[in-house]
Design brief:
The protein is an alpha/beta fold and 248 residues long. The chain contains 6 helices and 12 strands. The chain has one domain: 3-Layer(aba) Sandwich (Rossmann fold). The strands form 4 sheets. A 6-stranded mixed β-sheet has the order 4-9-3-10-11-12. Strands 1-2 form a two-stranded antiparallel ribbon. The longest helix has 22 residues. It is globular, with a radius of gyration of 18 Å. The two termini are 25 Å apart. The mean pLDDT is 94.
């Protein structure tokens, strides 16, 4: 039996289906664990969820937020993402990096770690971890820019998602020190590539163009996440059928 979930993510309508067994054996126990941890801490609990592009982390967190609100015994969670800390488009258009032996504009590799405002992200995460009521930015795909102060972070259980929250590289590896609990999601690289191409096509891009973009811009980020992700407290794996498994 499947539980269907519809959500709009960055202007794209997404429909996911989660197996009832997965919900009862993985998702609800996870939410129960976080609920207990928050009660024991008696302060805000900050959870970080890291996954490579295409792993469906934003959709999953939307579903977990829904689940937490449907269960009377659970405290509702609040989910936020790091995408609001993309550097602005005008910055990316005027700054360059080396990629495959060539100098390319940052806008061509938007989504790579270097294209994020890491300093601003770290500062805001620190405030969330300290339990402050924090204004949080989102990324607007129509504007191609972040929009400041859209979300008010005020819940007692907050899950922050992003590709690089557990990245084991200078600057990034320190972010997880703010987390009370960490979660990672991984999957086969070919599966992630297919998902990313399909997602790109849904924005109106033809398959050939979508494939070229994914291979040049997205797949290096996928490989980076898969190869350099720090070990999380809870590790999940997605198989070819979209089923989630706990990695022992």
């Amino acid at each position: 039996m499947m539980i269907r979930h519809k959500v709009s993510i960055n202007g794209i309508e997404v429909e996911a289906a989660y197996n009832e067994a997965t919900v009862s054996k993985i998702f609800l126990p996870l939410l129960n664990k976080l609920n207990v941890m928050q009660k024991e801490k008696n302060k805000r609990l900050l959870v970080m969820l890291a996954a490579p592009p295409g792993a469906g982390k934003t959709t999953l967190l939307s579903f977990l937020e829904r689940l937490s609100r449907e269960q009377e015994h659970l405290q509702p969670i609040q989910t936020i993402g790091m995408d609001g800390f993309h550097r602005r488009q005008e910055y990316l258009q005027n700054h360059y990096v080396q990629r495959e032996g060539k100098q390319v504009s940052m806008v061509e590799i938007k989504g790579a770690p270097v294209t994020f405002n890491l300093e601003g992200l770290r500062e805001r995460i620190g405030k969330v971890a300290a339990g402050e009521v924090v204004r949080w930015p989102i990324y607007d795909r129509l504007l191609h820019n972040p929009v400041e102060n859209v979300i008010v972070v005020d819940s007692e259980i907050v899950i922050l998602e992003g590709n690089y929250l557990l990245l084991n590289e200078d600057g990034w590896r320190d972010l997880s020190m703010f987390a009370d609990y960490t979660i990672s999601i991984t999957a086969d690289q070919d599966l992630l590539r297919r998902r990313l191409i399909e997602r790109r096509i849904k924005t109106g891009v033809v398959e050939k163009t979508a494939t070229a973009f994914v291979d040049f811009s997205d797949m290096p980020n996928v490989q980076l996440c898969l190869e350099k992700m720090k070990e999380a407290d809870c590790r999940l794996w997605i198989d070819e059928d979209g089923e989630y498994w706990i990695v022992s």
